[in-house]
Design goal:
Length: 223
């Protein structure tokens, strides 16, 4: 029989697999891997915080475009249903004087004959021997037109042709203070000046001297 022998110490080349005991520590320590992971997470969190701060930072103010004025409603123009405003009486009278004088000019022959001048005025002229419609001695275009129309329609002048001519369309082309005169003539085939003066006396009885000459006087109608 073999004699039992207790095992001897292992040979020195055999390494024990049992890890040596670690000394006890006073506090809990994170494993190295956990520490590294925490550092990575912290670094990532720091970068994210910076990026978030950059994104949420209030951007610089941008100059806004000037506000446009409020659109206003267009002013309504005249419609076809509304009548056009009438011209001013003075302008209308002046236009009518122009129309009549232009029409009579084409119908009047000028051969240097004698004619009776019944009126001679321009807007703004003063006649101390006559009264205008407003009771003054200053005649406007409306007064001149009314005077000519009365003379033209007066039946006592049926033996003559009553015409209206501008002083700038015959003879010396006269102006009164830079303005043409509107002159009413009676053409009745007078042979000489005395024929005109006799005609004036017959048609304006009760007047003589300067008063008669202010109403009717002899002229020659030169082209």
């Amino acid at each position: 029989m073999n004699e039992f022998r207790p095992p001897s110490a292992p040979p020195p080349w055999i390494v024990s697999e049992t890890p040596p005991a670690r000394p006890a520590s006073r506090g809990h320590r994170w494993p190295i891997v956990a520490v590294i992971a925490s550092a990575v997470v912290a670094a990532g969190a720091g970068a994210g915080a910076v990026a978030w701060a950059q994104q949420t930072e209030t951007p610089p103010a941008i100059a806004s475009a000037p506000a446009l004025p409020a659109q206003q409603d267009p002013v309504p123009g005249p419609t076809t249903d509304e009548p056009y405003p009438e011209p001013e009486p003075e302008a209308a009278a002046l236009a009518e004087l122009e129309r009549i004088s232009a029409q009579d000019l084409t119908a009047t022959q000028m051969t240097g004959q004698y004619v009776a001048q019944l009126a001679s005025k321009t807007p703004g002229i003063k006649d101390p021997l006559q009264l205008a419609a407003d009771g003054t001695h200053t005649f406007r275009a409306t007064d001149i037109l009314l005077e000519h129309q009365r003379l033209r329609a007066d039946p006592q002048f049926d033996d003559a042709q009553i015409v209206l001519l501008k002083s700038t369309t015959f003879g010396k082309r006269q102006l009164y203070r830079g303005q043409p005169l509107y002159i009413t003539f009676a053409i009745a085939g007078f042979d000489e000046k005395n024929d005109v003066l006799g005609w004036c006396s017959n048609h304006f009885p009760g007047y003589s001297g300067d008063s008669l000459l202010n109403l009717c006087t002899a002229r020659r109608l030169q082209p």
